[in-house]
Automatic annotation (TrEMBL):
Residues 607-1211 form the USP domain. Pfam families: RPT, UCH. It comes from Fusarium oxysporum f. sp. cubense (strain race 1) (Panama disease fungus). Its EC number is 3.4.19.12. It is an enzyme of class 3 (hydrolase). SUPFAM superfamilies: Cysteine proteinases. This is ubiquitinyl hydrolase 1.
């Protein structure tokens, strides 16, 4: 065996050994990435990729807590998942590019899916870690292997998705997304691990593996039809997974719907292997089912799979989260079942090691893996010394407070490996470290400095950078808020011992004047957050409530004050002030923390609304609705509109275009809501403070459905009845045992809808950020079959709704009009109630529904109203509550739809037209919507007209051979436009939409199909489509360098002989190829494939007949580009000329509700225009700001992805329907000076009405409570 001889001198080795990591003076490049930058904000170690893979496969990351979180989560797992995973490649979902690599896998045993998304900066790919950089002795400037560090959960989406969210996206039921980055200075590599649940349920698997049932089916079939099933055997019982695998294989291989292979339900194998018991499985797989029951009672229909389109991914790989990927996932899980039956599986673990640039370590001892020395070093037992030292150098940077422990681990691992060189290196590192510690300790202030370092859990030897000390300070205070003052003193000791002014200044900034902003965020657990929003307020309050002592509470409050100071949030300052008062913590000297409610107001500004716990979205809507006159009229003059709370009136009341049945609970909650809203509107008029506080009762009435209110109180009552804890001083005595009430509401339904009626009503005919299934702003209300006269035939659609009648243990302390109970009819209607309770003379009678919901509104637990909701969804709830509280003013005789002030003000009527290619007439669907929907561009900005066009303009659906468009039949005076920013996979479309001050809606209005108006509209659709095609072609052309100059320069230096020889040689290779003439003709826009050039045959090539080389290529290309530009200009001018004539329906912008943040979290505010004073005001919870320039506001709104909900008002009706009420100024104090006394000493009464001056040219409108109803 050949031996390796090290020719380097002992002096060279000593030089390499005799420096601690990072102190050799070698220059190292630092390349940063967004993920890598997050490493600096934590004190977490990393590990070598081999250990990372090992920990992943064994569900036990040393640092990342994902598996601990998964253990606490209810997972849809058909098999136990806590076992060593065996991963195999999943479908056609893995691919590589120059800067990314995706590896999609599935566990053979538990069916969980693991996707590894690797990426790196292509510009620095040559600087990535590479095993070829391995050397001994080690160098600070070489990075042979990645060192993967968990950088915290993704900020844009929760790493553990709620169960409801997973169910909503069955294609990709993600449960964890965990990013890791390489900590090596030059390396930009990162890998994001995505874990998702199995696609197949346990029920499906049991059906496939129910061998006994299949054998019985086979035997029964042979008895009934022996000739047909002569070849059937009991072995068929084992073939269900194989057959399903084949069905899915055929689905994925089909190229079009025409060649999709249908499955006959009477097929011999399908009939016995699957049969009716598996029909639901194929429906869930989205196979299209036909039913054809024969005379023998057997269904002879079919299941036809939908053929998903091929991916447009350049690599050809399937896109995750699509239907095709879902089918591939299911097929892979079926193959896992087959592999577990005995067929060997090819695992992808070797490929994963190769992708991460490491080697698999064989025969790892599971006991040694979890020993402290290997955990802290981040390596596996028996890895070579080069790997160990590379990890040691990386960990030295990642966990500076554990450097002594790292050296001890290094020495222990050297002993384990019995490697002489590693032992020598470890001993040298230990000696250097100890000598430097001793040297520093002997200094004058060394003892105090070391004590301070140890306080921050840093090992003595202060060679730490100032930022490392600061991070240690932040960690300490965040972990133990009660020690903040001590930590400041320790930081001061370290700063005073330094002779570096810059070093001292960095530390002084942390303790000199309160906490810094990063420290405040660290204390509050917001290090990865982009800001402090209402969505985090409850978590911080919970920290304060759970704090053990007053010092800790003070630390949290000081951190909150820093956030409030930075954001200039009056609402947050108010919250801090209230919390100080609540916990008895005095305001520190020099602090100006005050609540908005306690501040004197500027009476020229409207009153703000305080955030009462993640209610910025509700505040924005309330401020806007306060400016809508019909809403104010209903709320202030409620008795004129009030719905009587009798069973008869409630039963007669039908809500909206769907004619939703109203129940008693909804009606009671609605009236309570209007009363609370009336109080709030009065406060907005009369308050002399900066902001007023909406009641929690109002928030509960809007944000919680009636069913939720009742269920919560039912749970409370049951808990009180079943398990009564010792009474607290402020708790009332336990109530009487709850009766079991078997109230049942009977409604004839065609489909079961488990949503609460309020939830159902609030989501009718609208699409929200939460509900992403529809791409239109309507749902069907009235339908019509195909007719030859385009006539609408109304049909009633019944919606099923379930409601639990529950008990509560406390009654409402708020007076409410509750009429006497009406005797229930005996005809089995929804009002019938049967009770099995026994009436006991000493037991309190059960509460009515009225009492239950009112008590729930009053006493609902605080957390129930603090989950952030979508503005459009909340707007729907508010509108529904207002409708449910008032009686109808008129009824449409043809449809039975009831109209009232709210519906007349906000609801728009739209028609959805659909026509198959072969049909001559359109089918119609009419709906009443509370808003219309606009879709931003997938990339870049677009106008609001273009965004609305994606909803209303004609759409050609080639697969279904039909066209469709939507038109507006009637417009309301106040029109809401929802900018739909939700996308697939729960992401937000943040592309800007250019918002016009005046919106003309003529182009979307309904018109007869035989009219010239409609014909021109069809022409405009064609023109718009042509413009899109030209722009796409221009983008493709402009992304390519012109080839004309290049080709001409190449041809200039060649002579004829050379050209003939080249062509002849090439022609000999193409002998026998059919001659194809060059086709220079083209129509319209030229695309890349407009030119067809054939290869000449041998016989066609002669020196005399050789065609001349093409000339003027550059000029030709230029001409083509100019032609495209010219046509584009012409088309755009024609379209603009057409639109310029459509200005009969102008709507003026009145309000814009904005959202900043991610799809399901963030912060809302609203801009509202005051037509009378010609100013814009920004209502941001407690803060109200003024902007006078409309152009400035519109430019701000049109250049970001923040606008989300637009409110327009018909231009001619704006004075009638909207205004901004002025708050009432307090009456001036009476002046009883001697100047106002007459001769008898009586007070002289004078007219105190202020005179109008030139400074107040406009007369303010009367307060809204004094205005006449419109």
């Amino acid at each position: 065996m050949a031996s390796r001889y090290d020719l380097r001198s002992a002096q060279d080795l000593d030089t390499s050994y005799a420096s601690l990591p990072g102190t050799s003076g070698t220059s190292v490049t630092e390349n940063s990435t967004p993920l890598k930058a997050r490493i600096l904000n934590q004190n977490l170690g990393g590990c070598h990729p081999s250990r990372w893979i090992y920990e992943l496969l064994h569900n036990n990351f040393t640092v990342c807590d994902v598996f601990g979180r998964l253990r606490k989560t209810e997972l849809n797992a058909p098999y136990p998942w806590e076992h060593p995973h065996r991963l195999m490649i999943n479908g056609n979902q893995s691919y590589s590019t120059n800067s990314t690599r995706v590896l999609s896998s599935v566990c053979v045993d538990c069916h969980f899916h693991f996707v590894f998304k690797m990426s790196w900066d292509e510009r620095h790919s040559q600087e990535s870690c590479n095993p070829q950089q391995e050397q001994w002795p080690p160098s600070d400037a070489r990075f042979p292997w990645h060192h993967l560090v968990w950088v915290g959960q993704e900020s844009q989406s929760s790493p553990l998705v709620k169960i409801d969210d997973r169910q909503r996206n069955k294609y990709y039921p993600l449960v964890a997304r965990e990013p890791f980055a390489c900590s090596a200075g030059p390396c930009t590599f990162s890998v994001t691990l995505e874990i998702s649940e199995p696609r197949m349920t346990r029920e499906w698997i049991d059906l496939l593996l129910d061998h006994d049932t299949i054998r019985k089916n086979v035997r029964r079939a042979k008895e009934q039809d022996p000739d047909r099933y002569a070849a059937a055997t009991d072995d068929w019982a084992l073939q269900a997974p194989l057959n399903l695998n084949t069905y899915l294989k055929n689905l994925l291989e089909a190229t079009s719907q025409e060649n999709a292979r249908s499955i006959s339900k009477r097929n011999k194998r399908f009939f016995v292997l699957f049969g009716t018991r598996c029909f639901e499985m194929f429906r869930q797989l989205e196979f299209e089912e036909t039913v054809d029951v024969a005379e023998d009672g057997v269904d002879g229909g079919t299941f036809t799979p939908p053929i998903p389109p091929r991916s447009d991914n350049p690599s050809g790989a399937t896109d995750l989260g699509t239907y095709r990927a879902y089918i591939e996932d299911v097929r892979s899980e079926v193959q896992c079942i087959i592999h577990r039956g005995g067929q060997p599986a090819e695992l992808c673990t070797p490929g994963l090691h190769a992708d991460l640039g490491c080697a698999e370590v064989p025969n790892v001892d599971s006991v040694l893996v979890n020993i402290t020395r290997y955990e802290i070093m981040g390596v596996l037992p028996n890895q070579p010394k080069e790997v160990v030292v590379n990890a040691y150098k990386r960990q030295w940077e990642m966990i500076p407070d554990k450097r002594k422990a790292l050296i001890d681990a290094l020495m222990s691992i050297g002993n384990d490996l019995n490697d002489e060189q590693l032992n020598e290196y470890a001993v040298t590192q230990s000696s250097i470290f100890e000598s430097q510690v001793q040297s520093q300790t002997n200094g004058d202030d060394g003892g105090l400095t070391n004590q301070a370092l140890l306080f921050f859990e840093l090992q003595p030897l202060n060679d730490y950078k100032a930022q490392s000390i600061v991070q240690a300070f932040r960690r300490k205070v965040a972990q133990d808020p009660s020690c903040a003052n001590t930590a400041r003193n320790m930081l001061m000791l370290i700063s005073q011992a330094s002779t570096d002014d810059n070093y001292t200044a960095e530390l002084v900034m942390e303790y000199g004047e309160g906490f810094s902003l990063p420290t405040a965020k660290e204390i509050l657990g917001l290090s990865d957050a982009s800001g402090f929003g209402p969505d985090t307020l409850d978590d911080v309050k919970e920290k304060i409530r759970n704090a053990k002592d007053k010092d800790a509470k003070t630390t949290y409050l000081e951190a909150m004050e820093k956030i409030a100071e930075h954001t200039n949030s009056t609402g947050l300052k108010s919250t801090v002030s209230e919390l100080r008062e609540m916990h008895g913590i005095a305001v520190p000297d020099g602090s100006n923390a005050t609540g908005a409610s306690a501040q004197a107001a500027n009476f020229d500004l409207p009153v703000g609304l305080e955030n009462i716990g993640n209610t910025c979205y509700l505040n924005s809507l309330l401020q806007y609705l306060f400016t809508v006159k019909p809403v104010r009229d209903v709320v202030i003059n409620y008795d004129k509109f009030k719905l009587e709370l009798t069973d008869e009136k409630i039963k007669e009341r039908l809500l909206g275009g769907n004619k939703m049945q109203l129940d008693r609970g909804e009606a009671v909650v609605a009236q309570a809501f209007v009363q609370e809203l009336s109080d709030l509107f009065n406060n907005l008029e009369q308050s002399d403070k900066v902001a007023t506080r909406p009641s929690q009762r109002l928030a509960n009435a809007v944000l919680l459905s009636t069913g939720t209110l009742l269920k919560e109180t039912k749970s409370s009552a049951e808990a009180t009845t079943e398990s009564q804890p010792p009474p607290l001083p402020t708790r009332p005595p336990p109530g009487p045992p709850a009766k079991e009430n078997n109230d049942v509401e009977m409604i004839t339904v065609t489909a079961n809808d488990s949503r609460d009626p309020v939830d159902t009503a609030s989501t009718v005919s609208s699409q929200t950020l939460v509900e992403e299934d529809s791409d239109r702003s309507y749902d069907k209300v009235e339908t019509s079959p195909t007719t030859t006269e385009d006539q609408v035939i109304d049909t009633v659609m019944e919606v099923g709704q379930d409601e639990d009648v529950v008990k509560i243990s406390r009654t409402s302390d708020r007076p409410m009009e509750i009429p006497e109970a009406v005797e229930n009819p005996k005809n089995g209607t929804s009002q019938d109630i049967e009770s099995t309770d026994v009436n006991m003379p000493d037991v309190e009678e059960p509460e009515t529904v009225d009492q239950k919901v009112l008590t729930a509104l009053e006493h609902q637990k605080r957390s129930s109203g603090t989950d952030q909701q979508d503005v459009e969804e909340v707007m729907g709830s508010i509108i529904n509550r207002l409708q449910a509280a008032i009686r109808p003013s008129s009824v449409d005789k043809s449809t039975g739809i009831q109209f009232e002030e709210i519906m007349k003000t906000f609801f728009v009527t739209t028609i959805n037209y659909t026509k198959k290619f072969d049909d001559k007439t359109y089918q119609k669907e009419i709906s009443f919507d509370r808003s219309i929907t606009a879709f931003p561009a997938p990339q870049g900005s677009c106008s609001l007209y273009e965004a609305l066009g994606r909803n209303f303009d004609q759409e050609i659906i080639e697969e279904d051979k039909l066209s469709r468009y939507t038109a507006i039949k009637t417009l309301p005076p106040v029109l809401h436009v929802l900018i739909q920013r939700s996308q697939s996979m729960g992401s937000k479309n943040g592309n800007p939409v250019l918002i016009p001050e005046i919106l003309y809606l003529d182009r979307y209005m309904d018109a007869p199909h035989e009219s010239s108006t409609f014909r021109k509209r069809v022409e405009s659709w064609a023109t718009h489509s042509r413009i899109s095609d030209i722009k796409a072609s221009k983008a493709a052309v402009e992304s390519t360098i012109p080839t004309g100059p290049i080709l001409e320069s190449i041809g200039q230096g060649e002579d004829g002989k050379g050209s003939i020889a080249a062509v002849t040689e090439d022609s000999e290779m193409a002998d026998g190829v059919k001659i194809v003439e060059e086709d220079w003709s083209f129509d319209g826009t030229v695309d890349d494939d407009y030119l067809l050039v054939g290869r000449p045959s041998v016989n066609s090539v002669t020196s005399a007949g050789l065609p001349s080389r093409p000339k003027d290529i550059k000029d030709t290309e230029t001409a083509i580009r100019e032609k495209m530009d010219s046509e584009l200009r012409d088309k755009e001018e024609a379209l603009e000329n057409y639109y310029s004539k459509l200005k009969s329906n102008p709507y003026r912008l009145h309000a814009v509700i904005c959202h900043r943040g991610q799809l399901m979290s963030g912060h809302y505010w609203v801009w509202i225009y005051d037509f009378e004073q010609d100013v814009w005001r920004k209502y941001n919870d407690s803060n109200v700001e003024v902007r006078r320039s409309t152009d400035e506001v519109l430019n701000t709104l049109s250049t970001s992805g923040e606008p989300y909900f637009l409110c327009y008002v018909r231009d001619e009706d704006k004075e009638t329907y909207v205004d901004v009420p002025r708050r009432r100024r307090p009456a001036p104090p009476s002046d009883t000076s001697f100047e106002n006394l007459d001769a008898d000493g009586d007070i002289t009464v004078t007219n105190s009405e202020p005179l109008k001056t030139s400074e107040s040219p406009q007369e303010l409108p009367p307060a809204y409570s004094e205005q006449n109803s419109d």
